[in-house]
Amino acid sequence: MSYYDPLETRDPAAREADLMDKLRSQLAHAKRASAYYAQALADIDPAACGSRQALAALPLTRKRDLIDLQKATPPFGGLNALAKGEARRVFASPGPIYELQGGEADHWRMARVLYAAGFRRGELIHNCFSYHFTPGAFLMEGGARKLGCSVFPGGVGQTEQQVQAMVDLRPDGYVGTPSFLKIIVDKAEESGADISSLKKALVSGEALPGVTRAWLGERGIAVRQCYATADIGAIAYETEVDAGMVVEEDLLLEIVRPGTGDPVPPGEVGEVVVTTFNGDYPLIRFATGDLSALLPGISPCGRTNARLRGWLGRADQTTKIKGMFVHPEQIAEIARRHPEVARMRLVVDNPDAQDRMTLHCELAGVPDGLQARLVDSLREGTKLRGEVQFVAPGGLPNDGKVIEDKRVY
User: What sequence ranges are listed for the domain AMP-dependent synthetase/ligase (predicted)?
Assistant: First the structure.
């Protein structure tokens, strides 16, 4: 086995002691440098927070609350310790939620993840995460820079041009969503293009169906996935063995009961809560809204950190579709634009392993042109393409759901 550094195989007790030392330092820094945490941690003594029990007593900051926090204290809700004008970049994710990139080259700690996926110094990576608005592509850029790889900024779309660039440049691997990689490989096979240099891929942003992984593997592409967010960066990643996702070294991870901050017993499904040690954008007990569970024991690959079963759904109605978060607030805004629609529900499914979203609209009669206007509003509000279906009054369940995820993996 090959490891990025000795941290990955250290004694778990030594790791835990190191994390607790970092926690105390980060709490003191956040109270001093962040307006939000100066208030949220006002009654907390950082020096006394050196255990999991003390960590569990700290307040949660929920991802779903960032929209309101940022509206009240623009642009970052006061969570930032780095001024807006000192950031390397500022991003907007759907919601909108604004994030910053600090001074570190690998701000999101992706070099370790790329290494685990098989990438090595001197290789060329074809990057098909978006370079527009959101930080997805730059997560990988930072990790590649630290690892010593070069990057082709493919971005999203333009499938034929992506294939041609792969034919000409002979990249060693791909980073992006798994669904787009399958589209690219399909197009290459259809046109007879040789992209056989592509031997590995690190995918994220959406679920990786087993059928897609197997299909790509049959074509010589070893696919590994990582769990990362725009706010936190890398959280966990797959290694050379198929045995869950190893937690990234430079963060504190908890699994808590949804709707609370109470840690659940090992193995029980709960919400992923993360504390980072990023000095520019400290996040203390940041509740992601994602569900997962811890696996028992140490990974067969030899890495000794905790492992996640993977992404197991959402603790709230915020849903990731084609790599982009869609929030209930966005659907509510579409409804405000179209008062003629009595009720709306966004339904997400995945026929043929491809995410599809359909806006179900309840109303008595359908005015001319309304369907096209709703399609446009849906795309404008979520930055994603979707369909619109109409149902009669009373046709939608009265269960309070704004977003329904019916995907099957």
Answer: 129-275
pLDDT in tens, the chain (409 residues): 899 999 999 999 999 999 999 999 999 999 999 999 999 999 999 999 999 999 999 999 999 899 999 999 999 999 999 999 999 999 999 889 999 999 898 999 999 999 999 999 999 999 999 999 999 999 999 999 999 999 999 999 999 999 999 999 999 999 999 999 999 999 999 999 999 999 999 999 998 999 999 999 999 999 999 999 999 999 999 999 989 999 999 999 999 987 778 898 898 888 899 999 999 999 999 999 898 999 999 999 999 999 999 988 777 778 889 888 898 779 989 998 999 998 899 999 999 888 999 999 999 889 999 999 999 999 999 999 999 999 999 899 876 678 999 998 7
Picking from 314, 349, 369, the residue at the C-terminal end of a domain is 314
Q: 278 and 210: one domain?
A: yes
Question: Do 60 and 89 belong together in one domain?
Answer: yes
3-state secondary structure the chain: CCCCCHHHHCCHHHHHHHHHHHHHHHHHHHHHHCHHHHHHCCCCCHHHCCCHHHHHCCCCEEHHHHHHHHHHCCCCCCCCCCCHHHCCEEEEECCCEEEEECCCCCCCCCHHHHHHCCCCCCCEEEECCCCCCCCHHHHHHHHHHHHCCEEEECCCCCHHHHHHHHHHHCCCEEEECHHHHHHHHHHHHHHCCCCCCCCEEEECCCCCCHHHHHHHHCCCCEEEEEEEECCCEEEEECCCCCCCEEECCCEEEEEECCCCCCECCCCCCEEEEEEECCCCCCCCCEEEEEEECEECCCCCCCCCCCEECCCCCECCCCEEECCEEECHHHHHHHHHHCCCCCEEEEEEECHHHCCEEEEEEECCCCCCCHHHHHHHHHHHHHCCCCEEEEECCCCCCCCCCCEEECCCC
Q: Which of 254, 281, 314 is the last residue of a domain?
A: 314
Domain region containing 388: 319-405
61 assigned to some structural domain: yes
Q: Examine the domain organization and report whether 33 and 127 are in the same domain.
A: yes
